[in-house]
Amino acid sequence: MASRVCISFLICILFVSSLNVISAEETESKESEKEFVLTLDQSNFSDTISKSKFIVVEFYAPWCGHCKKLAPEYEKAASILSSHDPSVVLAKIDCTEEANKEVASEHDIKGFPTLKIFRNGGKNVQEYKGPREADGIVEYLKKQSGPASAEIKTVEDASGIIDDKKIVIVGVFPKFSGEEFENFMAVADKLRADYEFAHTTDAKLVPRGESSVTGPLVRLLKPFDELFVDSKEFNVDALEKFIEESSVPVVTEFNKDPNNHPFVIKFFNSPNAKAMLFLNFTSEVADAFRAKYRDVAEKYKTEGLSFLLGDVEASQGAFQYFGLREDQVPLIVVQTNDGQKFLKANLEPEHIATWVKDYKEGNVSPYKKSEPIPEQNDEPVKVVVADTLQDFVFKSDKNILLEFYAPWCGHCKQLAPILDEIATSYESDSEIVIAKLDATANDLPSDTFDIKGYPTLYFKSASGKISQYEEDRTKEAIIAFIEKNRDKAEKQAEKQEESAGSKDEL
């Protein structure tokens, strides 16, 4: 779970959507026009999906700022795509409606907005990975709704499809029929949201590698490592595995080049433990680090460990998340799937191999990140740190609303004065505590709190029941939730008496 948290936060840090905000006049104009985005709910969701060959669904929350920014762009794209041949349907479902929460759960919705592409009656579901402004949405979905693989007939076709900055998978066949071709097209349809696919009968049109082959052959072209790799295995599972494994760099590079971002995402989506070496790419020792780190990555790449090399200048989000400091650079961090972290700061190039070996052999102790315990904690919203979490929350007989936040998060800053007001309104109620924990500066118990974004709110009743707050972030809504879910002192006393009576009977 902690690994998924790491993925979610770092990917959020990588990309900031640049969505245009329409003017008040445009808003008023659009409100009077027909709505092209189809509204779904639990009653019609399954039936609509099952009858659709291709449909895009936005899972959203009305209070979500990113959803509000996306809305006019999504509506504009839906309007344009409605006249496309064939038409492309864009839909939306409000995940905060009680009846719709089951639909969101079924589709593993962890944050808003989430867009998914449903193909062939929902038999094939893919994450939407395109732009979030109208023109970009239109172009991306036109391509996604077309053929899964493009035919290369000429040199011009090849140059228009094959880009030396992205991964392209090209199938070479003597004819476009037979089991090999059908399996290739099946895999292309399944993985088309992640990769570019093409097919041809003329290998001479495909750059790199042997050009006289007649196929069947699959050539994966990539902008890193050996630049291309071939396979003649056409079993569907084997072909998919070949593509997934071959499209991951031995060392993923994280800098400000947007062309690297897809590979960074693949790195964090990997099920492996993740080794991350951070240094200044302009330093005199950068090349020495690169060489030593790559040697180590080559040695351990088949042992459940993935490797990333990050430039300090581009990795500020990662530093905030892990609680690292620039004066620790060069440093290496390993995060395991169970959330444990291992750190070596002020590293020398010649020490990389030894430290990774010690980590693999279990000779490195994990570190736990916790802010210092506050000397004074007398503000209305109480401060919790990792070292006080157990006593403050789990051993407390109070009803506690706990916010997990990030200091740099805009939504957290907007929520802060609201929580202050709520805490102030409960100052005379000794049974209620409003608290906050900086999730970027403290490690959390991953088996209790599932933090996918900021802010995340949890409520623990006096009797110990823990639930996540996912409703409107207004003072009135939060107070209503607290009042509905709190345990009052007299209720607690009754429970204790019942418990004592049960023990006496035994």
From TrEMBL:
Alphabetically ordered keywords of this record: Disulfide bond, Endoplasmic reticulum, Glycoprotein, Isomerase, Redox-active center, Repeat, Signal
Role of this protein: Participates in the folding of proteins containing disulfide bonds, may be involved in glycosylation, prolyl hydroxylation and triglyceride transfer.
Disulfide bond positions: C64-C67, C409-C412
Homology family: Belongs to the protein disulfide isomerase family.
Cellular compartment(s): Endoplasmic reticulum lumen
Organism superkingdom: Eukaryota
Top enzyme category: isomerase
GO molecular function per UniProt: protein disulfide isomerase activity
Catalytic activity annotation: Catalyzes the rearrangement of -S-S- bonds in proteins
Classification via InterPro entries: PDI_thioredoxin-like_dom, Prot_disulphide_isomerase, Thioredoxin-like_sf, Thioredoxin_CS, Thioredoxin_domain
Name listed for the protein in its UniProt record: Protein disulfide-isomerase
GO cellular component term, pick one: endoplasmic reticulum lumen
Lineage, top ranks: Eukaryota, Viridiplantae, Streptophyta, Embryophyta, Tracheophyta
PROSITE patterns: THIOREDOXIN_1, THIOREDOXIN_2
Entry's EC annotation: 5.3.4.1
Segments forming domain Thioredoxin: 13-146, 359-487
Record-linked NCBIfam families: ER_PDI_fam (TIGR01130), pdi_dom (TIGR01126)
PANTHER family attached to this UniProt entry: PROTEIN DISULFIDE ISOMERASE, PROTEIN DISULFIDE-ISOMERASE A3
Signal peptide location: 1-24
SUPFAM superfamilies: Thioredoxin-like
